[in-house]
Structures are given as C-alpha cells and as structure tokens.
Specification:
Helix content is 83%, strand content 0%. It is globular and about 60 Å long. The longest helix is centred in the middle third of the chain and has 31 residues. With 290 residues, the protein is an all-alpha fold.
C-alpha cells in the first residue's frame, strides 16, 4: 500500500492513471476514490477537482451502460468528504457528512436508476424463492419478505456511504504513512462525534428501524457515522488496555455476524457522546499512576 501511495503522489499523471483505471469498476472504485482523496488532502482542492472530473468520465460511462450511479456517488462523495476534512481538519465532521452523502445518493438512485433497482429486486426475489424452496424440501415451510425498490435503494445508499468513508480513511492513512507516521492512529483513536449529532443520528436510526419494512432499510444510512465512531472507540479501548490485534479481529467477526453486537455498539457510541469514555480512561490512568 505504501508503494501505491508513493506512486500516486509522484505526479499528476500517475495519480490520474490510478483514479481513472478503477473509476468505472465495481471492484476498484474505492481505490480510485482513495487516490482522489489523497491528492485532495495533500495537494489541495484544485488538484483534487481536476482528478475527480477526469475520473468521473469512465464512471458516467459505466452508469449509462448499467443504470447504476454508485460509482459516480462514490467518487464525487469521497472527494466532498476529503474537501471537508482538508478545510475543517476535523475527521468527525467529514464522517458526519457521509450520512448526507448516503441520503443524496439513495435519492439519486430512486430518481435516476429505477430500472436498475427493479432488476435488483427481481434478483433478490429469485434468491429468496430458492431459499424458501430449499427450506421446504427440508421440511420447513416459511415465507420470507421480498425487498422493495425503496429498501434496496436504502441498502445501496448505506453501502456507498460506508465505502466513501473507508476510501477517505485509506487516503488519510496513506497521507500519514508518507508524511506523518503514526498520525492516523492517534487521529482515529480520538474520533468522537458531537453530542447533539450523535443523539439525533441515533434517534433517527432507531426510529426508522422500527418502521415499516419499506423505510427501515434507510436506518442504516443514518447509522453510518455512528458505526465508524464505534469502531474508533473500540480501537481506542484496545490500545488503552493493550489487548492486541486479536481482540480487534474477534470484535469485527462478532460485529459482522451478530446483530446484537451492532445494537450494542450503537448504544455505546451514544453513551460515549454523553460520558466521554476516553477522557475517563485517561483520568483513571493518571490517578492510578499517582
């Protein structure tokens, strides 16, 4: 990864090559977005604008061919997040903006990519039908709900927001790796969202999750900033307690497969907004040393 970051920062044309090659790809769009964010963070908004405009060309072509505007949302959204981070020097504000990015991206899907969403609904319905048939063959009869275009749009919107934040974090990591070794770790461990924003986002996520299925999928969009704040809190706790990377691997495995862990993490983030656990850990450590 360091070699790739060095290649991107070697010059304008090297950065353009990385940004354009992966721009229209579902597999490597995140890499193009990270390259754009790195150039924006390090060299400025003008250089980043030049890069994203060229990278949007293959993304627009891919969107025209498939009907999916996800690559456009990812590239433009990550660039906007990088501009916010460069301007405010606040990782928290940049990650908060990912919720707005997700909402706008989801709205764009509903307005522009209706046919693409309908195709995905058909695919999901067929997969669910096959699953029901397999369960019926084994003696279980169950009817599973089919997703709606609105639900699928909400899921894709959350996915785009998550990928944009991951691309931004990768760019920030690259920047620290090249110019400020160790700086990203400190910045990420300190990540904590404003109290008001945390409570509002948490309340919206919980409220939408409890609503009808056609809108519950949008709860994930509002929860994206909270999810990354939770990850930062866990990383900070592991570093404070010196538990090692094995604890992080176990946490992410549980978070990925166990829904209660996701809910617990959301609750911890909201509690941290009020109690500031890291400050308490620091105070307890200082008192212990005294």
């Amino acid at each position: 990864m360091r070699g790739l970051a060095e290649f991107i920062m070697r010059g304008r044309w090297q950065a353009l090559a990385v940004a354009v090659v992966g721009a229209g790809s579902l597999l490597f769009g995140w890499l193009s977005a990270a390259a754009i964010a790195l150039v924006t963070l390090r060299k400025g908004i003008i250089d980043g604008s030049w890069l994203v405009l060229w990278a949007l060309l293959p993304a627009l072509l891919a969107a025209w061919m498939s009907g999916d505007i996800g690559s456009i949302v990812l590239l433009a959204g990550t660039f906007v997040l990088a501009v916010i981070l460069r301007t405010t020097v606040s990782l928290a504000l940049a990650i908060l903006a990912s919720a707005a990015l997700g909402i706008l991206g989801g709205a764009g899907l509903l307005l522009i990519s209706g046919e693409f969403l309908d195709q995905l609904v058909v695919v999901f319905a067929e997969l669910i039908g096959d699953l029901e048939a397999n369960m019926k063959a084994s003696g279980e009869t169950i009817t599973l709900p089919r997703p709606t275009p609105g639900q699928v749009a909400g899921i894709l919107a959350a996915g785009n927001a998550v990928t944009a934040v991951l691309s931004l974090l990768l760019a920030r990591y690259w920047q620290a790796l090249l110019y400020n070794p160790g700086g990203f770790r400190v910045e990420f461990h300190r990540l904590r969202l404003p109290v008001g924003a945390t409570l509002i986002l948490g309340g919206l996520a919980i409220f939408l999750w409890l609503q009808a299925s056609w809108i519950s999928g949008w709860a994930m969009v509002w929860a994206v900033p909270l999810m990354f704040a939770g990850f930062a809190l866990v990383h900070a706790w592991v570093a404070f307690t010196r538990r090692g990377n094995g604890s992080l691997v176990a946490f992410y495995a549980m978070w990925l497969f166990l829904d209660p862990v996701k809910g617990l993490l959301l609750g911890l983030v909201m509690a941290d907004a009020l109690l500031d656990f890291r400050r308490r850990w620091s105070s307890a450590s200082t008192d212990g040393e005294a």
